[in-house]
Amino acid sequence: MTWTRNEAAHLLRRAGFGGSLEQVDALVALGSRQRAVDSLLDFDTIADPVWADPNPLALPNVSTDPRAVTETLLFKLFNSRRPLQSKLLWFWHGHFTTGLWLVKPASFALQMERWRTHAAGRFEPFLLAVLEDSAMLQYLDGAVNVATAPNENFARELLEIYTVGSGNFTESTVLQAARALTGWTIGPGDVGVFDPTRHDPGPKTILGQTAAFDGVGLMQLLARDTRTAVRICTRLYQAFVNERVNVWLRDQMVATWTRTGGDLREVLRTMFHSDHFWAAPQFRAIVKTPMDYCFALNQRMGVPFSGFHAREAGWMFERMMQSPFNPPNPQGYVTGVRLLGATACAARSQWAQRVAYSWVPDTTIDAMLAAVPDPATPEQIAAVALARLGAVREGTRSHAAVVAGLGVLPLRGTQRRGALRDALYLCALAPEYQLL
Amino acid sequence: MNRFSPGRRRLLRASAALGAMHLAPGMQVVRDARAAAAGRTLVSIHLSGGNDSLNTVIPYTDPGYAAIRKALAVPRADVLPIDASHALHPSLVSLKALWDQRRVAILHGVGYPNFNFSHFQAREIYWEADLTRARTTGWLGRSLDQTLPPAPSPLSAIAINGGSAQSLAALQARTLQISTDASALAFHVRNGSQVGVGLQSMLTQAPTGTNVLLDGVIAAMTTARAAEQAVRAAGALTPGAVYPAGNRVAPLLRHAVQLMRQDSDVRVITLSQGNYDTHEDGPIRHAQELLELDRALGAFFADIDANGLSDRVLVLLWSEFSRNVYPNGSNGFDHGAAQSMILVGNGVTPGVQGVLPQIAPASLLSGRYLPMRVDFREVYAELLENWLATPSATVLGGTYARTALLL
């Protein structure tokens, strides 16, 4: 089976944030789709120094200031040597949502460490970690859910968003689940602890089963429910393959889930190894999130992501309708074309301009121009930008627009630099480039 | 350019008469109303933090009010009476003038069952019009999804400085979030430059006709570019009134009028004002917040009157909850329940509707909160059906009786 640069770039967009040209080349050198996928998926043995450092940006108040936590996390996501683990962490944050600004920042940072650990592990231990998580206990009032006054907030989101999904339970299920979850509170070391004196030990009927469920029992029940597997596999498919779900592959993923007892890594392997993932309709089939867009531009242009970039990303992602670590509600972030409101499009333009005109050094531009004749035609300059950023193909309207932006005259000497920067900017504003 | 022609204003008046018939059955009536609504704008102002309704529209003749609120009651000598039992807070001089022009409607007791005392959750309930907060769309966004034409104006729905943008969240329709200086919409490409030519051609390219997702992106980017240009043009219009200086909400309202003058298809504008979360030093802070709002509203209505927009604009003043009737221990008021909503505009049925309970423990919710008398979704149903020409049942997920707030 052929294994192309185009396919390697597709994989890196999905199983990472786009990656550098060198990363694309490294995947191509592995010789097959399967080996490339496994190299990204079996990431536990890859050293990842940026995540080992609690404060890589040396920020003051890194555990108390939500801005500092945001910048540190963005920095770690971009600079991780395990791109798929970063991508999965962002996925799970959007699934098991917690708003950083609504909890203690240190608890949130701890939650991200936990989610990262479980990102490709088995689902049931992951769900038990959600039960014990301090930030989650704060975000959905789990810590004040006691036998004498059950608080349904966590139970409702747990059923509706985190596991079986809406339509699969009744209001009575919510109340019974809330009773099962009573007694959890936040103990020393900022971890959830179970206090039996605050727990309702009576029998509860949940999803057709009656028992004296506690939190752990409830989580086990939900983790083993097939509807949970269907829901999680659907969301994984939509985030990694195509916004429009293909039921055949989704069911293959569910079958793997069932066979392996909810082993997420194997579910992902089924997904990425499937021929369906590599078929033409899956290329450019998902709207890039702000993180996909900005990270991909920087990575592909070789622009490092420093504390400065993390700070800029913090507020610019918000303009792009994805305030980082601050989801609008427990359902998570906006996806799809809804990400492309007017302000968001303008903010993408502003980020692309900074990459194309400020952050990419002349040395990079000159290296890209090394094989371009002097003088060069606008078409020749445009071709260099197309090759670097992908997405725009020759002969399309977007290609014509890039060329039109460079004028009609031959470009000489250093004029070629400015023209190449213009071409890179225009490629980044192409409709195709907004898609993953 | 002001595209709001005198002819359209006449049409609006005619449709106000239709509205009084509460949209009797008949497709022609619905179509006419819808056409009329195309020229109407709802400006929703969120009094952020939980406005103290009882010190805003004051039952100044109820002895219980002064008895319970004691030093934190607004002194009877200072209030602005509007009828035998209600007075406006002394900060609300412009609102009183609008009342005198018969342009103000007040509805007491607006709320919902099982009150939520969290700012965060109560706001979501009002934004989404869903007590379980399970929706990802807002009530105004769902209205727009139903009523906007296939190629809507880029200025159809605008959240200024992000205020209450969640209420505009829609599945299809696009919300514009702008700040008053329009910089957040700028692509920052020099007009007339060669790269600007390329960008224009990139963002306004024809749809493929075969790739639905890509065509959605193209439409979004075309809209974004049009919005940038329209908002910049709006910002260049000279206001028709003098707005107060040093007032945080005045520039937002000034910009709102510019946008409505620029484009007659602006349907909804949302914004937030103030910090009404007056747990401490309640009366002083409340008076300041209301004063800021009132001065800005006064200029806003002078501006819309000067620009011939008086029949087109309806302002809704709402908050996520009101406050406890009883003072707390720090000269303020903790979170409360039902609120008095206020509508301002030529389209209202002027007057006070609903009744405040006697200010006494026996008639208050849990002995200390203003009780709900009207489900807020009844107000929404009224605004949807009678102002935005939207069938309300789909938006609200159920049928709600309508209020009589609008003519």
Question: Any descriptors?
Answer:
heterodimer; A: 436 residues; mainly alpha; 3 domains; two-stranded antiparallel sheet; two-stranded antiparallel ribbon; 3% strand; elongated; B: 407 residues; alpha/beta; Alkaline Phosphatase, subunit A; nine-stranded mixed beta sheet; three-stranded antiparallel beta sheet; 12 helices; 36% helix; disordered N terminus
Helix-strand layout with pairing:
The complex is a heterodimer of chains A (436) and B (407).
Chain A: H1 5-14, H2 21-29, H3 33-41, H4 49-52, H5 66-79, H6 83-95, H7 105-118, H8 123-132, H9 134-139, H10 153-162, H11 171-180, E1 184-187, E2 191-194, E3 204-206, E4 209-211, H12 215-223, H13 226-240, H14 247-260, H15 264-273, H16 275-278, H17 290-300, H18 307-319, H19 342-359, H20 362-369, H21 378-389, H22 397-404, H23 415-428
Antiparallel strand pairs in A: 1-2, 3-4
Helix pairs in contact in A: 1-2, 3-15, 5-6, 5-18, 8-12, 10-11, 13-14, 14-15, 17-19, 19-23, 20-23, 21-22, 21-23, 22-23
Chain B: H1 6-20, H2 27-37, E1 41-47, E2 57-58, H3 63-69, E3 80-81, E4 87-88, H4 93-100, E5 104-111, H5 119-128, H6 139-147, E6 157-160, E7 175-178, H7 194-203, H8 212-235, H9 250-262, E8 268-273, H10 282-306, E9 313-318, E10 339-344, E11 351-353, E12 374-375, H11 376-386, H12 392-396
Parallel strand pairs in B: 1-8, 1-9, 5-11, 5-12, 6-7, 6-8
Antiparallel strand pairs in B: 2-4, 3-4, 5-10, 9-10
Helix pairs in contact in B: 1-2, 4-10, 8-9, 9-10
